[in-house]
Structures
1.
Amino acid sequence: MPVKRPLYFLLVGVFFGIVLLKSGAASWFRIYEMFHFASFHMFGIIGSALAFGLLFNQLIKRFNVKDLDGNPITQTDKNPGIARYLIGGTVFGIGWAIAGACPGPMFALMGAGYWPVILVFASTMLGTYVYGVVRDRLPH
Amino acid sequence: MFISWKDKSAHGLSSYPLESDKNYFGSGALLSSLTQIVRTRTDEIMSLITDPWPWYVAGPAIAIVLAGLLLGGKTFGMSSNMRTLCAICGAGNNTEFFNFEWRKQIWNLIVIGGAMLGGLIAQNFMNGGEAVPLNPEILSQLQASGVESAATHYMPTEIFASKSMEDPYVIMLLILGGFLVGFGTRYAGGCTSGHAISGLANLQLPSLIAVIGFFIGGLFTTYFVLPTILSHFIA
């Protein structure tokens, strides 16, 4: 089954990549600065994205906005739990502080030509794979 | 009405009266001053693109990405692509977690392909590789830690320049960081996009717990581990 609207998703991605790079959200330095609470910048980005996201979600609900196929826009609730979110989140946080890149910016950085990020990305896939293998033995 | 993100004085706009001044009372006066205005305005508009973007542009723009994906009938989350890629590589043959209909996730691979393209465009045509305007205290702290490139580069060249890959220490660092990002995001079921933005915007309690985890891990590492890690770079 071919993907519907590939160009649409490509353009959303291009826009996302440009924003990540131009705002410094993809910069290792900005993440370092964020974890030192030394600048409002990253908190402003995530905070205002969140604020507008909340607004958009409310508008979607209030006005029953449909997606481009005419289907209602629904988001499934995350599975309840504490351990997996707290432990998994902490592990990600450690990696985020070291590599200075989360999964989105990683792709923008590879496109921008910061080649060592390819190694980070490959290793991210390895980490994902190992999680999949040991998943049943972890608390969730 | 067009203002620069940065302080204007840093932009060479002070060279406003050009050599064309001597024509000011001549026949070309009107034309040359019009040209000058257009040129200045163009510089100002261009600087909105070439300067680093402020948070109040980037944050709402990311929310537009979120809304764009919802309109496309999808949700915002980047780290799940790693699972999809593992599945495409055949990980589903021996591990149940990767045995799913990955073809339904191709749209998201197109998004990350777009993000790569966006990174390429920003870097090469929008001055994206410019040094980041950091807090001066953080700048001097980094430089004292041996990360000299903080004032001049977008990414620390000590770690992310191709030649730094000759250093096994840096290679280990990148592998370690990436591994933890991959393991942690999948364990937590999302990263910054899926939990901190998309999940919180949809009032998901699990996302709040995950974000608290992001900061527990990030703060611990930044204060207690990174100083030791970075001491490697002190010449």
2.
Amino acid sequence: MNLSLSDEQVFLREAARGTLSRFRTFEAIREALDGDAGALPDLWPAAKQAGWPGLLIAEEHGGAGLDAFDAMLVLGECGRVLAPVALLGHLPATAILNDSPAGASLLQALATGERRAAYLPVSPPDDVSQKWTVDPASGLQRGPAPTATADGDGARVSGQLAFVPDAPGADLLVGVALLDGKPVGVAIEADASGVTVEATTRYDASRSLGHVTLQDAPAIVLDAPDQWLASAWYLAQSLVAAESLGSVETALDVSVEYAKERHTFGRAIGSYQAVKHSLTEVLRQLDNGRSLLYYAGWARGGGPAEFPLAASAARSVAGRALDQAARTMISVHGGTGATWEHDAPLYFRRAQLSRRLLGGTAGATDRVAGELLAQADAA
Amino acid sequence: MDLDDTQEQAAYRAQARAWLDEHKSQAPVLDGAGALQDESEIIAARRAWQGKLAEGGLAGVTWPKDFGGQGLGPIEQVICNQEIAKAKVPGILDAIGVGMLGPTIIAHGTDEQKSRYLGPMLHGDEVWCQLFSEPAAGSDLAAVQARARLQEDGSWRLSGQKVWTTNAQFASYGLLLARTDSDVPKHKGLTMFIVPIDAQGVTVRGLRQISGEAEFNEVFFDDVALDADAVVGGVGNGWGTAMTTLMFERVTIGLGSEGMGYNSNRFAQAIAADADARRDPEVRHTLGEIASELLAVRFTGYRTLSALQKGQVPGPESGLAKITIVNGAIKAGDLITDVLGPDALSEDGEWAYMISFLPGLKSAGGTEEILRNTIGERVLGLPPAPRLDKGIPFSELRSKETAAA
């Protein structure tokens, strides 16, 4: 048993921190919120240079051939500085392609980052609903998965997906569609006929989202096994979890530093039990989340049957941790923490949006219950 | 990152499993058909079984070979625990002695103490108890008042009271923290002693809790005579010696927290049995939240283990896992009681017992509030609250406290 970072993983993380430290993301996000969308730095060239687009692509196809946990380390660093790098969309898409011989020819350009992919998130069936579903544009009712009809060697895909991370500007859309009721992997060129991507931002300017409409869009059918189609969803869950926990780390660090410096009634506020306990609570949730990242990182390759449970649990804990960390950051800083000039509101905005994307933290929490109930039935 | 055994670990696992396969028919039966009922029979059988496990090398796995252990690492200890659990046989009876008190004696005891006490402890011939907490010294352990007075012949006389003492009712010895000097600040005037429980002047009384059962004891000491060689780790060094014990307590908890039975699978099973509850969104959401945190603790344990294997010592952050487990189990008990209704509260059922036990467990090993203070200060580096007891001789503390009130 060894649940610690390898030297290579420590290096990957440190290098990512170094790369991202060159950008002033917080100022840019505030300016973007004020209406200057061009203020956000384009981080894709830096990502390309660092080799992140090919993290999950096999070496024979030009990638780094690394695993989910390595990708989580990079996402964690992005989360630390709220860096808008389009990896949440790109990496799960490349994971599906990497496991599909039919997608092999697409991999080289995606590995270098010359082209960028976005994952079309379709949630696998659970113990209550036997359906593949997508996030709706609004409301509690989940939408139907895209459907495909055979067309020669390929297929034509129709469907609607709301709030797809990193969809605007992507070259390739990769996800799941139902062909005769059965899930298949599909890869669709973003500039093909019948594809519409409507760019949208919500509340968190650092997050690029798109509403994707497919109308008989021509697709390559990917021969990925069912398990890998579902696995992409859980990979996306674990990446959001890792990114969220990165944000929790900085939110906690900043709050702790302030609690040491700021004095009231002749004492540092961090010496008051109420403040100390609320910061310790953030640490508790962060530490639980970190442990679950290890679980998810191990499970994807080492115990795939547990990956849905591990990734969903990580997402569930990380989502709550981020909300807790953002709110604690604001309250520890007093009224200042709620002002526009402070960074705390950016973490708060990140927390509120992130917890509702990709099935939401609540969806992941429900999935944890479903997986454990299924385990109980099998026992 | 890897959860699998190395070749050596797999070989050790196979060896432990083979021994258990051969000997498990001799283990006492504690549950189900043919289970032992009489308390003293159970204890006798479990002591004998501990002796068997020790002979087979399945007790004191991390103890040095010189003292009858296996000289192996924490991973092997965990493998051993896992195989014992898989074989569905009881583990050692004296987990407190072998896990915490024995290692303290190994670290601080004299050669005579090691050769006299460690063997019988390991084999279950003499069970030990931990005599640290008092009615007015729990989280603030250095406030102990049990007083040992030095006699002219170099022996000691001990008076005072200890509480929350597991296993005292059948223990042969206890490791006891006493005040030996009241005129110095409270951490400095403490000394650790080995106390025979059958000595004149020692009284053990069961302490019943919410469930009605007595899981712990109170132990009273009335002018108990102790020889000079009862001191462990030197006079006045009791605080440092106690810290060693508490470090081993963290290790024990870190490696075996799920052994307490507060795990997500057990709680999910209770919900799975109810066809309506398992489809109810609110029940599922609550179960999912609780289970996620309890799952996290399992992997926190593996992280601790990886760190231990590299020779790192677990710090106060391991208290976070205890907070998560206890609060998670409290919420799970509440959820299951909501689902089952009053039926869950049947006195002889598992859930009534669990929900009765947990409120007290919240304060075990340091209250949650003190754990959060310690973690906030030692892990996050937050400043401590101002203290009135720093540098004040213990004998002057009470008047100081009264004056401040």
